[in-house]
Amino acid sequence: MTDLPSTEDLPIPAGSPEVPPAEGEAEAKAEVGVGPWEGEWPDGEHWDPDLLRDGDRRNVVDQYRYWKHDAIVADLDSKRHEFHIAIENWQHDLNIGTVVRTANAFLAKEVHIIGRRRWNRRGAMVTDRYQHVRHHPTVEDFVQWAQGEGLAVIGIDIFPDSVPLETYDLPKKCVLVFGQEGPGLTPEVHEAAVATLSIEQFGSTRSMNAASAAAIAMHAWVRRHVFEQHV
């Protein structure tokens, strides 16, 4: 009986992740987006002539390829959902950029920054160009604005009086509020909220990342009011 070679004796295929690239060999990088428009240019005010000529390398869905920035925002504005997102920013929270990016993905009406005006935009991946962001210097200012707009203020955090997000019927017109990573919602927001919701967890940690919690809560709203999935 002939012995089969061990896997250690077999040659490793070129391009395998275990084989480092040859010295001086440049690694191929996938191009983002599309190149210049091929053929006769389309008609319409929403097309961007520079992008048609040079290509569109932006992080946008195919529907908006070659569109002007203002035209994309206007189209998004025509179909934004009725929920808002707010996050407190007293310690220059690094989560805010990711929250803005997710709010853009779920087409939130607006994102509200409570506290410091400046926030770290790196996590937003330029999506803040397409997402309306409003600043409120104080919790009082934010609450007055929300009440004037007829929006229910819904806090997301773990408090003794929190109720499960999974069984709460989210109102259609609301603003979901998130606190700082670590300290969570301030007492002022907790007091102003018509309800505070917690996200059920099954592991060993007491809390989860604020950006992750925001994504879960936004998706819960979408399931309820876009797909009409009742709790």
Strand pairing plus helix content: what structural class? alpha/beta
What overall geometry do the principal axes of the alpha carbons give?
A: elongated
Strand residues, percent:
5-15%
Helix content: 10-25%
| Biggest pleated-sheet summary | 7 strands, parallel
| Gyration radius from CA atoms, angstroms | 24 Å
How large is the count of helical segments?
A: 6
Low-confidence stretches: 1-21
Summarize the helix and strand pattern as letters.
Answer: HHEHEEHEEEHEH
User: What is the terminal separation in angstroms?
Assistant: 65 Å
Mean pLDDT: 89
Number of distinct beta strands = 7
Strand order of the largest sheet: 3-2-1-6-4-7-5
Descriptive overview:
The protein is α/β, with parallel strands linked by helices and 231 residues long. It has six helices and seven strands, in the order ααβαββαβββαβα. Helix 3 (96-105) runs parallel beside helix 6. The longest helix is centred in the C-terminal third of the chain and has 16 residues, at 210-225. The termini are far apart.
Notable characteristics:
6 helices, 7 strands, elongated, about 15% strand, alpha/beta, disordered N terminus, about 25% helix, single chain, about 230 residues, seven-stranded parallel sheet
